[in-house]
Write a structure and sequence with these properties.
Layout: H1 2-26, H2 29-50, H3 55-86, H4 90-98
Helix pairs in contact: 1-3, 2-3
């Protein structure tokens, strides 16, 4: 009986730990995006050094590559926030439902 109570109490802590680990894993994509952006502009510099007459066209391609890489990078914080905010433990969601709104709480004032 004591083991069951301990297991029920440890589930919210395990869920919080799993949420933090998931959010951290989702932000690893930021490092990959940084490497990708570095590769795009490194390739631009090398290409412009080899053929300067194509500089305008190559710059357009580099900006497109930067935009696509940055779009992928924007998904990592979005997924981290989704992981942290969407998944709730049963105890946490029950306590949120149980609380009364502030408008229903009556505050008694002392007579003047």
């Amino acid at each position: 009986m004591n083991d069951k109570a301990r297991d029920e109490n440890s589930q919210p802590e395990m869920l919080e730990g799993a949420k933090s680990m998931g959010a951290g894993a989702a932000t690893i994509a930021s490092a990959g995006a940084a490497v990708g952006i570095g590769n795009v502009f490194s390739s631009l510099i090398h290409s412009m050094a080899r053929n300067p007459s194509l500089a305008k066209q190559l710059f357009g391609y580099a900006i497109l590559g930067f935009a696509l890489t940055e779009a992928i990078a924007s998904f990592s914080p979005m997924m981290a926030f989704l992981i942290l905010s969407v998944f709730r433990s049963k105890k946490e969601s029950f306590s949120l439902k149980k609380q009364a709104p502030l408008s229903h709480n009556k505050v008694e004032t002392a007579p003047c």
